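Task: complex structure prediction.
Instruction: return structure tokens for all chains below.
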Amino acid sequence: MSDHILEMRSITKRFPGVVALSDVSLSVSHGEIHAICGENGAGKSTLMKVLSGVYPSGTYEGEIHFNGELVRFGSINDSEAKGIVIIHQELALVPHLSIAENIFLGNEQSTFGVINWYDTNARAAELLQKVGLYENPVTPVGALGVGKQQLVEIAKALSKNVKLLILDEPTAALNDDDSEHLLGLIRGLRDEGVTCIIISHKLGEIAAVADATTVIRDGSTIETIPMRSAGETGAGERSELTRRIIKGMVGRDMDNMYPVRDARIGEEVIRIEDWNVWHPTQPGRKVVDGASLNVRAGEVVGIAGLMGAGRTELAMSVFGRSYGRDISGTVYMHGKPVSFSSVSEAISHGVAYVSEDRKRYGLNLIEDIRRNITSAALRKVAPRGWVNTHEEVAVSEGYRTSMNIKAPTVMSVVGQLSGGNQQKVVLSKWLFTEPEVLILDEPTRGIDVGAKYEIYSIINELAASGKAVIVISSELPEVLGVCDRVYTLSAGRVTGSVDVGEATQEHLMELMTMEKE
Amino acid sequence: MSGTSNLLELMTRNLRQSGIYIAFVLIVVLFTVMTGGSLLSPGNLTNLVLQYSYILILAIGMVMIIVAGHIDLSVGSVVAVTGAVSAVVVIREGMPWWVGVVAALLTGALVGVWQGFWVAVVGIPAFIVTLAGMLIFRGLTMQVLDNVSLSPFPNEYQMIAGGFLNGLLGGPGYDVFTLLIFALGVLGFAVQQWRARLRKLKYKQPVEALWLFAVKILVVAAVVMAFGWRLANARGLPIVLILLAALVLIYGFVTQRTIFGRHIYAMGGNLQAAKLSGVKTVRVNFLLFVNMGLLSAVAGIVYSARSNSAQPGAGNMFELDAIAAAFIGGAAVTGGVGKVQGAIIGGLIMAVMSNGMQIMGIDQSTQNVVRGVVLVLAVAFDVWNKKRAAADR
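Output:
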């Protein structure tokens, strides 16, 4: 008997026309935290779908051994019965049901089909204690923040007697505090004997928490790197390991995570003054409070703030009043006051907003690349009111090439692309509107290192061509790496404007957590 | 990247669309055999066009509504109320036939404004608004007609649905004019396809192999000309067919090539993303329902002209045929997918089935069961097809 809880041997998975995984092997030891790294589209999710039975046995080649026995899962239910639970990036909770109901959804505490509510809530309370979530189990899940919902998912996994817990990008949507808590919880679970596989793009996090890291690139395993347990690793060694992971993921050394900025800053393009936004449904809650900011041509300005600071709300309320109510304040473009009462007005004034949630707000996933790219400026390929479809193809083909979107043709359906390529499609769509002001909300969320670099380069080029760029980000290194100037936002107020040359992460964090006097 | 794609690839990539044509051919063959060939007799083909044109007209509007992510359950009642208004104006008030047509169209537009207001501006789900509309407009029909049927319409009005263009060029036992119009149609289709092919090549897009292209044109030409030959041997070219052809061409263009049309697909595919791309969703939704009201009025005029009367119970269950036509024609239950040409084929499938069953003397209750089952199966196919596509990922 090996001490491996999981061994996936020579897994090959083919889709029509593509080999998604070729001869991938993965060995996970009992009671370790095993990280899987790889670019988007490298095959991480496919591998996990093979493991959890989403792709049933027989649709792939190779063997899976779990606890020393050969397993063939026909569905997710089979893998869950063995104690393999996967928590997806997009949480699968029902917002209107209570925490307890969610935890036992599909696994109800009942006798002869009648639910025993006492049991349900009492057991839920026990599980919540375990994951360190101090909420009443009857609270509806929708009332919780993303961080707490993540904990409910873990409690749900624990209720199923999980032996191997798979977390797909668990901290992607969390702020630093919530991430820290979650990672601590994962360590605690490991110490209780639950093996964890964690898929993450945050390399610092992996270095801190993982016992081993497997790097996947282009559907093949590159290497499995043993990491020393968190406490013993020195900072120097940690960055050495991170470098090695990056090298494995992209197949090249990436000495510089960010392209060099050579800013040529011109006249002011947009100025927002005394901007106030109230929450759309909760009366009396001010989401943006007297915010003022400006951006000049050729400048990249960062907006840094923690979750709930009002960053997205600020951007969306400016962009054609897409968020909030009782909005007040003035927007100036080139010194003249303008008012955008609708999205189409904002677009025609040269403002573009690239949402943080591309699947929900950015793309039509069932449509092809071509139609997505032209969707915000359709008139440009339809000068007389009807679309010149050939011109449309030529235009989108141009973006596919220049943005390096990895897809066979522009007729490929967007839903089938990887996250990084989807983001490039959204960017192309907004570039096609020829904006003067480009607001990028978390432009690299859920994107691998290689694609991030490409996006940063695009941001640089846009600024160099004289556009005013606003980058909203919760990753401070990113803000410092790509911006010229940073506004910090805390509880809806602008608490500082700092030149990047003088900024440090600590200083920014201080401003971002500044309380109202 | 530029190259030719083969038949199999085209078929499997587009199973949803090509499946309809295969199903249509199968159903025609099936009913031709079961009716001993009477289905395709010249007289019956003419009858088929006249009797079921209203389904096709409604299906055009319905598929647009469904693509946008809505549904319209009220079209049957709207057909009734517009026909009734027309009858009151023409028959009871004695005004000229065209005043009736205008009055019906205005009524349809007003109905559309009413439903569009609640769906687009207030934001009530279309299912509820049109369910209520089904009741409201049925009730209004009865009130407008004082609960009695009105008939007959003057001759000119009847011509809308029962008239033919024939004998203009004479012909020995068949109508040369009809054949000429069909030949022109085929020629126009071939020229348009050829030009599209040339432009695709110019923009370096993949096209099908030349022989395949030629076969496609020849098959379409043969089928269309055979259909034209049959009509020419019966009573000539029905006016309704010209109306239908015009509607199909116009709406095919509107949905595929205009900004308005593309916004419908964008909204059905991802409403939030469409809003944030500057699509004026309220306006598009509103116009969609006004358009549906207008098309229902057209169907109402054609139907009342065909039946030469306006009845309180007219148009009952028409919504089922229209909705079924859209879904059989490849529209997706979740919106964002569907085409006018698909809905037309879907409507023809419903028409051929109804007509075939009538010829066979199957009673109405069984016909209802069959039509209901076909609707469920069409949507089941859509769902299955989507699962298949998801598993391919």
